[in-house]
Amino acid sequence: MQIEILKNEGPKLEGKVKGASVGIMNALRRAVISDLESFAIEEVDFYENNSAMFNDYLANRLGMIPLTFEKSDTEGADITLALNAEGPCMVYSRDLKSSDEKIRVYNDNVPIIKLAANQKLRLEAHATRGTMKKHAKFQCAIFSYEYDLEKKNPEFGFFVESYNNLTGEEQLIRALKLLGEKAEMLLKAKELK
Questions:
Q1: Whole-angstrom distance, CA of residue 34 vs CA of residue 132
Q2: What backbone torsions phi and psi does residue 13 show, to the nearest 5 degrees?
Q3: CATH 2.170.120.12: does it fit domain 38-135?
Q4: pLDDT tens-digit profile of 61-117?
Q5: What is the per-residue pLDDT across 150-173, written as a single tens digit (0 to 9) for each?
Q6: Smallest Cα–Cα separation from 110: which of 127, 123, 121, 96?
Q7: Which of 54, 79, 81, 133 gets the most CB atoms within 10 Å of its CB?
Q8: Contact 52/87 with Cβ under 8 angstroms?
Q9: CATH homologous superfamily, domain 2-36+140-192
């Protein structure tokens, strides 16, 4: 399998693949979409909330805010993001203050809620690592591909877009490594029989 990068624009990556099958391309697509680890807010402790929105709705919104990813030194880490706001104001994702400088909000301008005068929101959110297989909020990239059915040896065009601090190329490399590890496990299992 040969991969040629045509466009590398940070979060967005476009390229071509030669010498692969539809099955391999689909496995790669699934690896990018559902097997890559990322961080997301999993639990929220509300200490004060007299806003117009219920705790459950706010917790769901907070879970969908993209967080940065750092693999090293974060295994089993307890990442806490604190928020303390009083209206009148618009509360944005940048108002969430992380306990770990490596794992923080990726996009500062995600609106969370508009607080009216005398409304307060004080909470502590806990982020964990996971994959999209656990919940959609952990999806950190997309992957799509296309090919010409008429060709006997199809050449695939592909597109990757990252939703966190990793580039599209880094997400692709992570997915390729995962596929390689799975292939090795299958070969070892076959040898044991």
A1: 5
A2: -140, 130
A3: yes
A4: 999 999 999 877 566 677 999 999 999 999 999 999 999 888 999 999 999 999 999
A5: 778 889 999 999 999 999 999 999
A6: 96
A7: 81
A8: no
A9: RNA polymerase, RBP11-like subunit (3.30.1360.10)
